Amino acid sequence: MNDVIVVGTDGSDTANVAVQRAATLAKLTGARVELVSGYREDYALAAGTGMYVGDMAGDARKAADGFLESTATRLRDDGLDVETHCMGGDPADALIDIAEATGATLIVVGSKGMHGSRRFLLGNVPNKVSHHAPCSVMIVRTS
To answer: Which residue among 44, 57, 67, 141 is least crowded, i.e. fewest CB within 10 A of its CB?
Structure first.
């Protein structure tokens, strides 16, 4: 059975650092990459915009799908086996859920938000993943 590496992206430069580290590891080991994007569905009505919750969640899903597919295409063009998962809800939960579902051997996350006083906040993606993952976790320094 091949190894599975789960990595998340939100389209940011810092997420790309983690994706590139996961890609390097996948090339070295022959692992399949499970590329995940978790987007928030719980948007409130934006005052004065006329946009309802569904409209905003739909926009978030379209944006997540867009950068997820462009990242997956780049990795596939580099010869990697990549599956994509665009999931509504908490990004940390999305990474953990996919790791459980695929029997992942590693989750790769960026260190964004783990510096200074923010590192103590609950809900921080790398912090939550490191405490609840069903497999090993690599936290990549992204800044």
So the answer is: 44
